[in-house]
Amino acid sequence: MLVLNATFEPINVCSVRRAVVLLLKAKAEMLEHGEYHLHSGSSTVPRPMVIRLVSYVRVPRDTHRRKITRRAVFARDDWTCQYCGSRGNLTVDHVIPRSKGGGSTWDNIVASCAPCNRRKGDSLPNQAGMVPKSTPRTPGPNVFIQVASPTIPRAWQQYLAF
């Protein structure tokens, strides 16, 4: 379930169970629900799809410290090789190779197909004639929501700015 802050900013994805607990404790309100219902011994409630926290939660803006994962890099780069545009056989590539002083940071790692990664090898982008189509950058928070839930339900789309 998509969790929105009190300001309608998407902050997290949680389980149905966690969403229902937040709703029952009146810490959240339901904005969108599915067609199915959840049943307990004494009540029936619609299955939440999007909830909004009642009070504002401060979210640290340290996405630059978030762990770099292959899935997050692929999601940030729209599951596309940044050199040729291919969408298959993806790996990650250090734009400036580690052997040449490049680090494992958000602004030095891009999605690359295996053939492009092999062709670039241990070369700098200008030496290989292979410059990424978009400049690598720290991803926004929506990328991590995509990673947590690769298929975005229709009910979430109006709350996410892709």
From TrEMBL:
Keywords annotated in UniProt: Endonuclease, Hydrolase, Nuclease
Record flagged with keyword DNA-binding: no
Pfam families cross-referenced by the UniProt entry: HNH (PF01844)
Keyword Protein transport set for record: no
A molecular function (GO) term: endonuclease activity
Record InterPro entries: HNH, HNH_nuc, NA-targeting_endonuclease
Domain HNH nuclease: 68-118
Family annotation (PANTHER family): OS07G0170200 PROTEIN (PTHR33877:SF2), SLL1193 PROTEIN (PTHR33877)
Protein name, entry field: HNH endonuclease
